[in-house]
Amino acid sequence: MTTENLERGREACHYYRSSPHSAGLAVFRLVLGISVLVLLASCFRDVDLLPLPEEEKLVIEGSIETGQTARVLITRSVPIFDRIYSTELLNLVVTNAEVHLHCGDQQEQLFLVKDEILPKIPVYRGSRLKGEVGKIYTLEVKIDNQAITATDTMAKAIYMEKLWFSLEPGEDSLGYVNLSIADPPAENNYYRIWAKRVGQDSIFQEVNQDILNDFYFNGTSFSIPLMRKAGLLSRPDTSFFRRGETVVIKLAHLSPTFYEVINNAKYEASNMINPFAIHFEAFSNLEGEAIGGWGCYSTVLDTLVIE
To answer: How many CA atoms lie within 13 A of 13 on its CB side?
Structure first.
């Protein structure tokens, strides 16, 4: 390397060490780097979210079905983030309420009995008044100096057109029970559906589409493929019906108000398994300091033998 080239190199190094422009650029880069590190650190900051305290409320779930007596379960609510153990469920049941059912000039008191749906949890049951189409039923609950009431009307029955079985593609014995309904025109109708396999189910079970309205098929004949509503840990094939089974389908016609009660409660229940869901207080038709609902199921039954 020549002496001339060495001198040029020294001058260049001296320029970059002493230039105000290069010094400012270095400071800018340093500040920018620190800012990025602070920003990244803030992304990982621990945040403690404390749920707001929730007031305990009475929860009333009651209904009356065509030809059946009234059934009412009364419990107390628990905060949404609290842990609930099965051994504590009985402690949530309210057993000191005074429950009456009114229909016109008739009335009866409901008493605690062992429930066929929830065997270990007592419910209030009637013994004399039974559900009849067109009748108006008012529930009255008194507890701890509180009075809660709700009223609903038994809608007219809507009958099933037919039931039939169809196989799941690729299966030779598993499939669906299809239900056909002729929806009455000129009015909005609301339905709920259950199924029971004779000799296998002790009570009617929910199906996959157990609550629906006629918003998309008002006044038309429509069909629904029904599947059993299996648990989260159940085998996939338990959702299907099978050849050789005898299945009883129960179809209920609901009032618009009772439909809103059931539909909102189910929506909120489905949100319970999602920690990021927005929770809200479900719609209630109860008057008084309680949540839940009371309503009438106008029911019809039909049976399908799957061959």
So the answer is: 6
Place of tokens 């305290």: 53
**pTM (two decimals):** 0.79
17 vs 46 pLDDT, higher one: 46
- At residue 18, the pLDDT reads 43
Choose between 229 and 64: higher pLDDT.
64
Largest pairwise CA distance in the chain: 121
Give me the DSSP letters along the chain.
--HHHHHHHHHHHHHHHH-HHHHHHHHHHHHHHHHHHHHHHHHT-----PPPP----EEEEEEEEBTS--EEEEEE---TTS---GGGHHHHB--S-EEEEEETTEEEEEEEEE-SSSTTSEEEE-SS--B-TT-EEEEEEEETTEEEEEEEE-PPP--EEEEEEEEPTT-SSEEEEEEEEEPPSSS--EEEEEEEETTT-SS-EEEEEEEEE-TTTTTSEEEEEE-B---TTS-GGGGSEETT-EEEEEEEEE-HHHHHHHHHHHHHHHHTT-TTSPP-PPP---BSSEEEEEEEEEEEEEEEE--
Report strand pairing: 290-305 vs 58-65.
parallel
Backbone phi, then psi, for 21, in 5-degree steps?
-60, -45
Q: How far is CA 284 from CA 69, 185, 192, in A?
A: 22, 28, 18
* Domains parsed from the chain with CATH numbers: 3-43 (no CATH), 58-153 (2.60.40), 160-305 (no CATH)
